[in-house]
Structure formats: structure tokens, C-alpha cells
Amino acid sequence: MEYRKLPKGEEQISVLGLGTSSIGMAEEKEIDATIHLALENGINYFDLASADAAPFAAFGRTVAGNRDKVYFQVHFGAEYRTGKYGWTTDLETIKRSVDWQLKELKTDYIDFGFLHCIDEEEDLERVMFNGVLDYIEKLKKENVLHHIGFSTHTPSTADRMLDTGLLDMMMFSINPAYDYQQGDYGIGEVDERTALYRRCQTEKVGISVMKAFGGGKLLSEKTSPFKKALTEYQCIQYALDKPGVLTVLPGVRGQEDVRRLLGFFDAAPEERDYSVIGTFTPAEAEGVCVYCNHCQPCPAGLDVGLINKYYDLSLAGDALAKDHYHHLGKKAGDCVGCGHCDARCPFHVKQGERMQEIREYFGE
Ligand code: SF4
Ligand code: SF4
């Protein structure tokens, strides 16, 4: 397992976490075995926006004794009175639901408490001013809640929430379809979405990724908006390459799904390489580096994707990115202008020219 550190905290978060939206359909024994399998393989981050109530008790049973090794992402706005998921912005219902979730999980604290699924401006206004946000802040002061988060599919509401300065984590839907305005949640301009990811990294807000496979649609050519299928591993790598991303949270139905997803860590670079999207993404994607490193190897030893990422983040105001750049072994100034990357880039980035621009910007 690989881990990424929460920027505003010490937590080391597994880059592959688990979503629990579908696990409730499995038998109790299978749910328990799936959680055990995940834990044994180093998965430590679990999103609890489940479609069913059943997984909460399963986590309570299976995590007992290992609570300090696990991070729960709990949603303030998901409620389970009927045994099934319901969505609410009502303060009293949220309080009752959070109490119920803590009881079922057999814990007295929440690692990450998220304002849940706030896509519309009016919903954001409501939770900011109807006491829900105050409630979350109070729990944080009391140390019942360790980090405040926010889940949304909408870049503009994400930006408004980031303006509060309260967030340590954000859950956002990231995949190549949505990023290029395809599919149900392809909300926001291409640039707006990219700017959001950079803003999160710059402001030290980690991103947990939902819908990395576009609700499964990207995995079949019949349902993919590109009319071509991508694999799970390509989608996971795509999301992990975005600035700010700490973990990807695919929804699993049982142990078989977990085993298959864990194969990502043994997959060859070609299996993770998603540069094929360069052949079917729209004009806006042309000439923009997505940090995929398909152009590797560079004969001069430059990490082309990383250099580009630090440059973009630095332009977005991330002082740390500038520092990271200056600590790289090979920098844009080492580019020999061979043109290998220009010829290999599926997004037609004129990388040779860009390296000169980057060298001038950083001074080396
Ligand atoms: S230059 Fe092209 S191939 Fe290389 S990292 Fe950027 S987008 Fe990927
Ligand atoms: S043009 Fe520069 S960055 Fe690209 S492969 Fe050649 S040396 Fe590497």
C-alpha cells in the first residue's frame, strides 16, 4: 500500500480507500470479510456514505481493537432512519444520525466529518446558516471530530466552501469524463475543475475521490461518453495524478472487488497509463499537460509530469511547490530539447517550449 500524508495533520492515508455505497447489498459475513481483507492489505480510509445502514455495524464489529489504525469519513447529511440512505440538511436529523453512526461504529470520535453532498448554492447557504456548520465546528472544538470536510460535485460550491478556510479535506468526483464535461456530474468548465484541484493542493486541503469510474460508465464502451472503455487502474491512476488528491474511494460489493482493486499496486506502468484519453478528449485538452508521464523516459532524466505539476501549482500560488521544484534532481534547465516528449505526448503539449518557459520562471 502507498500512503499520502494529510497536509493539515499527521494522518497517513492509503491512496486506495473504500467506498461503501454498494457493500450493503452483501451478506453480513461478506461485509465483515471485505472490511477485514481491506485492513489486512493496508487500506485505512473508509467513506461511510453508504446506501444502507448495515455497513455501520459491520465496521463497529470488525474495527474493534484497531480503531486508531482506521480513518472514517462520516457524512453530516446522510441519514439511515429507514435502514436505507437518506439525504438531509436538517440540523436535528443530522445530530440524531451522527449519534446513531457513532453508536453503530462503536467509536466516540470521527476522523473526518463532511458536510454531505452540497451541490447547490441554496443548500450551501442552508447548512452554513441553519446551525449545521456551527455543530460541526463545535464537535471539532470538543475533539469529537478531528477534521472538517465537504463533499460536492460542483466546483463553484467547493470554491465557496474553501473560502471559509475551515476545510482539511474535500470529496470530489474526478474522472476523465467529468473533467472534460461529459456525463451526469461533468459540472464546471475544464479550466475551473483544474483550478479547483490546484487550489486544494495550494491551500493544503486533501481530496478524496468519489466516482473515479464515472459510476462504472467509463468501464464499458457501451456506456462510456467517449465510446471507449477505460480500465479501473487507468481511472485510479488518473485521479491520483491530480493535484491535491490523497485517496481514491471506489465502491466495492465484496472481497472480489477489493482483490481486483489491490491489483493496481502490482500493475505494470502500461496498465495504469491513461494517456489514451488524449485521443478522445475535447479541444480544450489539447496542449495542456495532465502529468501522465506517458512521454517518459526523458533522455535527460527529467520527471516531465512532476515538473509541470510544480510549475502549475506554483503559478496558482503554492509556495511549497516552488520549494519542491528547487529540490528536484533534474530541472527544466537540464532539458536538452530533444523533442522526444513532444513526439510522445498524446495531448500535443509542446513540452520543449514549455521547459524553456519553466526554466525562465524558476530560474533553473
Ligand atoms: S507532456 Fe504530455 S505525456 Fe508528458 S506528462 Fe504532460 S501530458 Fe503527459
Ligand atoms: S525535450 Fe527536454 S524534457 Fe522532453 S524528453 Fe527531451 S530532454 Fe526531456
Describe this protein's structure.
By secondary structure, the protein is an alpha/beta fold. It folds into two domains: 3-276, NADP-dependent oxidoreductase domain (TIM Barrel); 286-361, no CATH class. It is 39% helix and 13% strand. The chain has helices at residues 28-40, 54-63, 91-105, 121-129, 132-141, 155-163, 176-179, 190-202, 232-240, 255-262, 269-272, 304-315, 319-326, 340-344, 351-362, and strands spanning 3-5, 12-14, 18-19, 45-47, 71-76, 78-79, 86-87, 110-115, 145-152, 169-173, 206-210, 245-248. It has an eight-stranded parallel sheet, with helices on one face. A hairpin with a 6-residue loop joins β6 (78-79) and β7. α1 crosses α2 (54-63). It starts with a strand and ends with a helix. The relative contact order is 0.10.
Index terms:
about 375 residues, alpha/beta, TIM Barrel, two-stranded antiparallel sheet, 15 helices, globular, binds iron/sulfur cluster
- Taken in chain order, the helices and strands follow as EEEHEHEEEHEHHEHEHHEHEHHHHHH
Name of the CATH class of the largest domain: Alpha Beta
Instruction: Give the number of DSSP strands.
Output: 12
Head-to-tail CA distance between termini: 35 Å
Task: Please state the structural category.
Answer: alpha/beta
Radius of gyration over all CA atoms, rounded: 21 Å
Roughly what fraction of the amino acids lie in strands? 5-15%
- Mean residue pLDDT: 91
Q: Which compounds are bound in this model?
A: iron/sulfur cluster
In short:
The chain has 364 residues and is an alpha/beta fold. The chain is built from 15 helices and twelve strands.
